[in-house]
Amino acid sequence: MSQILKTEAIVLSKINYGDTSIIVNLFTKEKGRLTAIVKGARSPKSKMGSIVDPLNYLSVIIYNKDTRDVQLISGADIIAHYPRIKEDYDKLQYAYAVLELTKSLIPDHETNERLFKGIVRILELYNSSNNHSGILFGRFFLFFLEVIGYEFQIDKCYSCGEIDLQQKDLAYNFDLGILCSNCKNEHIQSFFLDAELFHLFFCLKHNEKIENMKVETINKALGYLEKYLRYHVPDFKGLSSLQLFK
Ligand SMILES: [Zn+2]
Question: Radius of gyration (Cα) for the chain, nearest Å?
Fold first, then answer.
């Protein structure tokens, strides 16, 4: 079935195609992730060439045919283009990591409005706030894991159910979740958490204010989240946008 579809979309990536066209990967509100061509986008007359660009939040008109691998974009308008992200290399790296997670882990044509809203929200935050980029990304990463069905479990000890986990030597098992100091030796330990790292994960997950956190601790937390995702999704090779995980 073919249809003319008007929907909101975030541009995830773009490549040149032929002499004047581009092919983009979009995450759309109504049709999920899809690949589409903008014919003639690189010709000097085209207005769409600069509009259909990675990171931009657009209203697009797509000539969609479910049997086709590449859809056709026939119109596009900017809803937001996040200039403050594009002029700040640190923000840009993390914003690209958001796009990369979506492109790598969300299957084609799977509608997910909650994730769509989450991506728009994180891009708005990167554009408007001066919060630490890694902290914002950590909050998004935990949200993303939950949305794709791999919630990062830190609310109670997997083994005994203890919920008071502050100030203890904890461990994490990628299959089971968090383990308290009494139970950790009964299970395989994927990594250890000291009180500071636990506090950070807790605040990220529960959207609590984070102050005076060491950058190394933030990077360590993000590195563990990436390892956790790679453990559960072996096809995921890690985030090339962020050098800190290498
Ligand atoms: Zn326990």
Answer: 20
Distance from the CA of 168 to the center of ligand 1, in angstroms? Answer: 11
- The rounded Å distance from CA 181 to ligand 1 centre is 7
**Ligand 1 geometric centre to CA of 219 (Å):** 26
How close is the Cα of 169 to the center of ligand 1, in Å? Answer: 11
Helices 215-232 and 133-147 cross at an angle (nearest 10°) of 20
Q: List, for residues 77-128, the tens digit of each pLDDT value.
A: 999 999 999 999 999 999 999 999 999 999 999 999 999 999 999 999 999 9
CA of 211 to the centre of ligand 1 (A): 28
The closest alpha carbon to 166, from 129, 203, 212, 131, belongs to: 203
Domain assignment present for 124: no
Q: Which of 69, 73, 74 is nearest to 108 (CA)?
A: 69
**Ligand 1 centre from 184 Cα, in Å?**
7
41: containing domain: 2-80
Mean pLDDT of the chain: 94
- How many domains, the chain? 2
**Within this chain, do residues 145 and 49 fall inside the same structural domain, yes or no?**
no
pLDDT greater than 90 at residue 241: no
Residues in the chain: 246
Name the percent of the chain lying above pLDDT 70. 98
Gap from CA of 193 to ligand 1 centroid (Å): 14
**Domain identity same for 72 and 174:** no
Separation of CA 44 and ligand 1 centre (Å):
64
